[in-house]
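From the pipeline queue, job 12 of 40. The input is one protein chain; the requested action is below.

Action: predict structure.
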Amino acid sequence: MKKINYLILLMAMAFSMGAMAQSYHHGHGRHNCATAEQMRLTMQALEKESFDDKRTETAILCVTLGHFCTDDLARMARTFTFDDNRTKFLTYAYDYCVDRENYYILKDAFSFSLNYDKMMETIHFRHHRR
C-alpha cells in the first residue's frame, strides 16, 4: 500500500471543506478555481517531490481533487523538469480544468512549443473521437 503524503491529505480536506473554490470572472464566464490556500498546499506538495515521476503522480491527484484554472495548471506545470512530464500532466488535467477555453496560455509552460502542439493534438483527437 502506498504511503499517502500528509500534505495531500491536508489538501483533500481543504478541498472538501466549506470554501470549495473562489469564483472569478475571466473571458467566457464565471469559474470556480482553487483558493489561495488550496494552491499553496498544492505547490508545497509538488515542490516537496524530488523527481518528476512522483511529482506527476502528486499533480494528477491534486487535479482530480480540486478545481484548477489554466493559470493554476501553468504554475503547477512549471515545477516539472521535463516537457514529457508536463505533457502527461496537462493532458490529464484538461478534463478537470474549469476554464478549458484558456488552455492556450499553457504554451508558455513548455520548454519547446512543439511539445505544447503535440499535447493539444492529443487532447483534440481524444475529445473528437468520442
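Job complete. Residues 33-128 form one domain.
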